[in-house]
Amino acid sequence: MKYPWILFDLDGTLTDSRPGILRCVQYALEQCGIPEPDETKLYPFIGPPLFTSFQEFCGMDPERAAFAVEQYRIRFRKIGMFENSVYPGIPEMLQALRDAGAVLAVATSKPEVFTLQIMEHFHLSQYFQVIAGSDIQRDDQTKADIIRLAMERLHLTPEEQAQTVMVGDRKHDLIGAHTCGIPCIGVAYGYAPNGELEAYHADRIVSDTAALQNYLLS
User: Fold this and answer.
1) DSSP character for 106?
2) How many CB atoms lie within 10 A of CB 130?
3) CATH assignment of 18-82?
4) I want to staple 176 with a disulfide (CB 3.0 to 4.6 A). Which of 77, 125, 144, 164 is the partner?
5) What residue ranges do the domains of the chain occupy?
6) Domain 5-16+85-217 - what CATH class?
7) Is 16 a catalytic residue?
8) pLDDT of 66-113, one tens digit each?
9) Residues 18-59: pLDDT tens digits?
10) With the C-alpha atoms ordered 95, 7, 111, 175, is the resulting torsion angle positive or negative?
């Protein structure tokens, strides 16, 4: 096995959370007085931290972005987090990796409090030794911070970190992993726009969960 320690992103990698995320962004924008009925225009929100996204994609100042995040989470807590589904083949892949001796962790920019609920709801927690998400009280955490947190919770030595890989679907996963000195596998079935995984130098790109499983077990 190439990598005995494997970190997984959540949205766009383990689960297809597009419906819930987009509907919650729409709700937040409505509360801000700038409704956006066209979901396709909101695709860039899937993956990056919300606080950054509201500023980058909607031109909000930090105070307005913080209000938008608050509104997003009102709907997300009640409905949005479960407008979601596990990608086909994910449970089988995780079980095969565990059976082969891999140690698995989640490293996601989604707040950890929500991540834990989602993982339990979809019966995915059983496969992971560590689940690391962002602190809901902080807006300044990068994906690299979350990856470091996951590796710290795994108590990895420098030698073990050298045998660790990140699996994700967006540039933030690639940037975060490379900042932490580990490779990143890009999953093309996620939410990255065409060419993003190549432009941010994914160490490997896989087309589906079967290809991901084959590569990780090879």
Assistant:
1) E
2) 18
3) 1.10.150.240
4) 144
5) 5-16+85-217, 18-82
6) alpha beta
7) no
8) 999 999 999 999 999 999 999 999 999 999 999 999 999 999 999 999
9) 999 999 999 999 999 999 999 999 998 987 889 999 999 999
10) negative
